[in-house]
Amino acid sequence: MKKVSKHLTIGLAMVLGFAMIMAQVGTAAAAPIKIRFSHVVSPNTPKGQAADMFAKLANERLAGKVEVQVFPNSQLYTDGKVLDALSTGSVEMAAPSTAKFTSWVPQLQLFDLPFLFKNSDALYDTIDGKVGKKLYKMLGKKNMLGLAMWDNGFKQVGNNNREVKTPADMAGLKYRIMSSKVLEAQFNAVGGNPLVMPFSEVYSALEQGVIDGQENTWSNMYSKKFYEVQKYITGTDHGYLGYMVVTNAQFWNYLPKDVRAELEAILQEVTAWIRVNAYKINMDQKQKIIDAGTTKVTELTEAEKDAFRKAFKPVHNEFRDVIGGDLIDAVYELNAKN
Ligand code: LMR
């Protein structure tokens, strides 16, 4: 505004008519608030579609007031780096997976614990209930505001060396993981060698044999074409992949009240959409991986999945202090109720 008023007093006022200047000032004052939403996945994933839907609705309903621009595919920032960018105001919104918050809010690794949720009711009761509230508060202490949690789905394991039917089949292989200590412990529990790597590097790491395997959802594996460079995938459904939609708390609180309220209403709408559609997108893209015919997809019986449950279970106890035993127990209680 300072710049604009300087403009007004010098030169321009002499050249342009008063009305024109007022129009200019008016335009400058009413310039739409820019919201840059950065993420690392493709637009055709659950998160990619949700981010685009958020942008579309916000740009329609708050036309002239807000301009949301989505940057997919790590165009702006890879993985957890976006959280630094959020804190310095280089972007306004992001939705990293819970694992990417490890150095900020390690308690969010709760969601990375293998086989934690009995079903989707237990998951949503966790997010929407007192556990979710506690975690949002923890984000607040880092000047981040948690706006919503979005689903991707459940992770599967893939590799290039052999078909995995038992936990022992996972031993000795090098796996890419997201930056979460829980995920490191999970692979260590079955004798695997975990390696933290940005999502954007996984395809070439598989192609070049830098890693043997990785874990991710069907949708993330399909949209990044991992099936081209990965011979085996086993449907373990062993861990949840979800996102914390975050903004910079100062930025959000600075927004005009009506704009903030509308954006929050849109976020609720998009969250409801993703809860219904993320699973469908994953199932559709799983079929596309199968149809590509380049990867052997192995399904497990419940008894076979139990062997993985048992092998990964010690990780829950290992992280009671880091995550908080109270949070883990609260999820167990919700599992028992659902
Ligand atoms: C990954 O790094 O594998 C995922 O977190 C990517 C994503 O955002 O779904």
Task: Provide the helix percentage.
Answer: 40-55%
Output the radius of gyration.
23 Å
- The name of the CATH architecture of the largest domain is 3-Layer(aba) Sandwich
- The succession of helices and strands, N to C, reads HHEHEHEHHEEHEHEHEHHEHHHH
SS-based structural class?
A: alpha/beta
Total count of helical runs of at least 4 residues: 15
**CATH topology name of the largest domain:** D-Maltodextrin-Binding Protein, domain 2
The CATH fourth-level homologous superfamily of the largest domain: Bacterial extracellular solute-binding protein, family 7
Proportion of β residues? 15-25%
Q: Mean pLDDT, nearest integer?
A: 92
In one word, what is the shape?
Answer: globular
Cα(first) to Cα(last) distance is 55 Å
- What's the number of domains? 2
Low-confidence stretches: 1-28
Q: In CATH's first tier, which class of the largest domain applies?
A: Alpha Beta
How many extended strands? 9
What do these coordinates show?
Helix 3 links the parallel strand 1 (33-38) and strand 2. Strands 1, 2, 3, 4, 5, 6, 7, 8 and 9 form a nine-stranded mixed beta sheet that branches. The chain folds into two domains: 6-105 and 118-151 and 241-282, 3-Layer(aba) Sandwich (D-Maltodextrin-Binding Protein, domain 2), CATH 3.40.190; 156-240 and 283-337, D-Maltodextrin-Binding Protein, domain 2. It is built from 15 helices and nine strands. It starts with a helix and ends with a helix. The protein is an alpha/beta fold and 338 residues long. Bound molecules: (2S)-2-hydroxybutanedioic acid.
